[in-house]
């Protein structure tokens, strides 16, 4: 009888307590939430990173490397006494375009990365030059630069020779091309300023179009 009483008072091992069920549900809910957060984060990172990575997979890429303060100063120096519209090829976060707009130029930036273009537009509004600084999402090889009197390019060595030919065909004789970080391989610069990565080369179209700037 005593043994039967103990058996009756012992909780059944086949039925889990309510607290265990609640803990199980909480763990399940947290697991779903954690999976959703991780998945959403990965999607967001992919969406942001893809425009940066994709250009690097092209045969000729133009990576985003922010211009230094000194580089911007040197570019502005090369634009002294210049007039006419300006274009920055591969405008990145818009620093050159915004600086040129502050100097009185109507400036345009072409950039393949949409995130950088949207950020550039935000910066232009914040700096109060949105009326004279415009940015477009475009591949530089699909843009014609004939309407610009001033061209700024932060290029890479692999693209400079091909860009030479494009600009020779499209620019007017009074145009000036300003190259930062890397010079053009065949043109002779009219002016050079700066040192190291801040070096800037200025080329006048009247010289290189007729072949006078070629060796």
Structure description:
The radius of gyration is 30 Å and the shape is globular. The chain is built from 7 helices and 7 strands. A 7-stranded mixed beta sheet has the order 3-2-1-4-5-7-6. The chain has 2 domains: 30 residues; 142 residues, Rossmann fold, CATH 3.40.50.150. With 215 residues, the protein is an alpha/beta fold. InterPro entries: FAM173A/B, SAM-dependent_MTases_sf. Its main location: mitochondrion. Keywords: Membrane, Methyltransferase, Mitochondrion, S-adenosyl-L-methionine, Transferase, Transmembrane, Transmembrane helix. GO terms for molecular function: protein-lysine N-methyltransferase activity.
What characteristic shape results from the CA principal axes? Answer: globular
Span between termini: 115 Å
Report the CATH C-level class of the largest domain. Answer: Alpha Beta
Please report the total strand number as a whole number: 7
Strand content: 5-15%
Low-confidence spans: pLDDT under 50, at least 5 residues?
1-8, 42-60
CATH architecture of the largest domain: 3-Layer(aba) Sandwich
Largest sheet: 7 strands, mixed
Identify the strand order in the major beta sheet: 3-2-1-4-5-7-6
What is this structure's SSE topology?
Elements: H1 2-9, H2 18-53, H3 69-78, E1 86-89, H4 95-102, E2 107-111, H5 114-127, E3 133-137, E4 150-154, H6 157-170, E5 176-180, E6 191-193, E7 200-204, H7 205-209
Parallel strand pairs: 1-2, 1-4, 2-3, 4-5
Antiparallel strand pairs: 5-7, 6-7
Salient structural properties:
FAM173A/B, 7 strands, transferase, 7 helices, seven-stranded mixed β-sheet, disordered N terminus, membrane, alpha/beta, 215 residues
């Amino acid at each position: 009888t005593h043994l039967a009483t103990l058996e009756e008072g012992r909780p059944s091992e086949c039925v889990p307590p309510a607290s265990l069920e609640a803990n199980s549900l909480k763990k399940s809910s947290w697991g779903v939430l954690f999976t959703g957060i991780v998945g959403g984060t990965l999607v967001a990172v992919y969406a942001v990173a893809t425009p940066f990575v994709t250009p690097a997979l092209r045969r000729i890429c133009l990576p985003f490397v922010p211009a230094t303060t000194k580089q911007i100063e040197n570019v502005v120096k090369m634009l002294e006494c210049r007039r006419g519209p300006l274009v920055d090829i591969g405008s990145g976060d818009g620093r050159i375009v915004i600086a040129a707009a502050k100097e009185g130029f109507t400036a345009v930036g072409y950039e393949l990365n949409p995130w950088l273009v949207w950020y550039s537009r935000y910066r232009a509004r914040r700096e109060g030059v949105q009326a004279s600084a415009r940015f477009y999402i475009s591949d530089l090889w699909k843009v014609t630069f004939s309407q610009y009197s001033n061209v700024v390019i932060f290029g890479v060595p692999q693209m400079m020779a091909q860009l030479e030919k494009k600009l020779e065909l499209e620019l007017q004789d009074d145009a000036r091309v300003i190259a930062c970080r890397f010079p053009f391989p065949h043109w002779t610069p009219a002016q050079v300023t700066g040192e190291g990565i801040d070096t800037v080369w200025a080329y006048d179209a009247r010289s290189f179009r007729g072949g006078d700037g070629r060796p």
